[in-house]
Amino acid sequence: MAFLQLSGVQKFYGANAVVKGFDLDVTRGEFVTFLGPSGCGKTTTLRMVAGFETPTAGEIRIDGRDITALRPSKRNIGMVFQAYALFPNMTVADNVGFGLKVAGRTAPEIKSRVDEMLEMIKLPHLRERYPYQLSGGQQQRVSLARALAPSPQILLLDEPLSALDARIRVSLREEIRALQRKLGITTIFVTHDQEEALSMSDRIVVMNDGAIEQIGAPFEIYNQPRTRFVASFIGTLNVFSGVIRDPAAGSVEIENQAVYAARLPKDVKAGETRALALRPESLRIGPASAGRNALAGVIEEVMFLGSVVRVRMRLKQSALLIDTFNDAAAPPPARGEMATVNFAREDLIVIGDR
Amino acid sequence: MKRNSLGAWLAIVLGVIYFLAPLIATFEFSLRLKRGEYSFEAYRLVFASGDFQASFLYSATVALATILIGVALVVPTAYWVQLRLPKLRGVVEFITLLPLVIPAIVLVFGYIRLYDSSSILPLTGSVFGTNILLTLGYVGLAMPYMYRSVDTGLRAIDVRTLTEAAESQGANWPTILFKVILPNIRSAILSGAFLTFAIVIGEFTFASLLNRPAFGPYLQLIGASRAYEPAALAVMAFAITWACMGLIQLLGRGARGATDTR
Fold this sequence. Notes:
The structure holds two protein chains of two kinds.
Chain A: E1 4-13, E2 16-26, E3 31-35, H1 42-50, E4 57-62, E5 65-66, E6 77-80, H2 92-102, H3 107-120, H4 136-148, E7 154-158, H5 166-183, E8 186-191, H6 194-200, E9 203-208, E10 211-216, H7 218-223, H8 228-233, E11 238-246, E12 251-254, E13 257-260, E14 273-278, E15 284-285, E16 292-304, E17 308-314, E18 319-325, E19 338-344, E20 349-350
Parallel strand pairs in A: 3-8, 3-9, 6-7, 7-8
Antiparallel strand pairs in A: 1-2, 1-4, 4-5, 9-10, 11-12, 11-14, 12-13, 14-20, 15-19, 16-17, 16-19, 17-18
Helix pairs in contact in A: 2-3, 2-4, 3-4
Chain B: H1 2-30, H2 41-48, H3 50-83, H4 89-101, H5 104-114, H6 127-156, H7 159-168, H8 173-184, H9 186-202, H10 205-209, H11 215-225, H12 229-259
Helix pairs in contact in B: 1-12, 2-12, 3-6, 3-9, 4-6, 6-9, 7-8, 9-12, 11-12
């Protein structure tokens, strides 16, 4: 049975639907990320779980108990905010111990738990500092400790890394994930950063325009996007059109060149034009070996990016981006040169929606 | 460039003369009670006067009550408007500005008409009732200053996120208000409180027409019958107001660190 369950959750502001029919089951201890562009409804959904927004329709259950109408203070949910939201008038120790104090725990209990939390976030030496005396990364660690101190049932993270610089962001996301695994706490993480989502999550919920586009493990979301939106939102992708020739054989025609796809959506018909996608890193420059697809074109641009060389090859109308690792022994082709790229049948994605 | 600099200095000097010359002249005059020598005799007479002590104590007490009622009324209102009713901010600001638009004399005559001995709430029928009416009148009079101070303080902190953070920690509304919001707008509340004190301590119209023994009517009475003591009282009133302003600055500076974020 799902630990956190969202069933038919909707949110309207007037006539404007912000979240449309959201269904999700989260198992205990799972790390689920809501990923999508600004305004897709991910934060509103998180806020409905926290209790800061009331769903227009649907219900939210934690461990089988309906909490849809429960006040935020009664939900036993820890939340970390993008803007840290530490109480400026309190020291680090007071911030971390706030929830425990509110819950009426004794002073020795609070001190012991605060010490434990500060050890956990590796900041025991800063216990008497005020928030304004801490860096952004330190403030967010304290915010995490404060959220975890009262031992909540669920941890909600609302873009907690967005305000931090790139280096801190990477180290903190690793810390958050390690802590989450150690504590085994069910976690919902909201972000618009696909790298964060792919690197941290057990499952990703990709959202667009208030609706779920796809739910799946990072590997699945990246390699088998079900919709054009997911395909274009996650990573760099070559998206172009092709005509289905023989659905049974997986035969597809791209600008008069025949290729094969290992998987086709069930509803495809012969003669139908569909969106196709290829990841740049799945393409190799050179003639195809047996069982692999090949496409011929003209090299239009070569960009040397250090460890990676990005090549743009023009077919007739479409252009393909190809990412290859830099190899001193095999220089990339020159601009204007005729070339062939090859790729596995499994790498050709025929997108589900039209 | 040099001409601009000269112009600025000239403006500053003229400004300083405009403000300080009357004050210095008043102070100098207040020291001339004894013929042929400067002394603080006028000040000694003022301090020794029972009327001075009683009227100052009365006004200070009313000011304190005004501050307490004003804070209790304004802080939850401004907080709620900021948190849940931001669309009503314009309306609330307009209402709080009304005491600046409507002259005090109009307000007090309105009060007298509304709360005279023939009304349902005959506040002017007793001394205690009149004191209550005066205090509530001052709450209205100081509202623009108190509301603006508190609203500015609330805007300087992220009220919504702090409230939500406290709620997610299990805090109820009184805890959020007293443990999280109030300590973070302390300097703003103190600013409003000192401005209220400065307004109430020298207010004349309300106190005089409601016939209460406040400091304002006392100043007027002394001014009409004595020569040097009113000058001493004027200097003291300036000193009280400046002390209030100085305290606002001092406390504002001290509290800045608490609301600062990197």
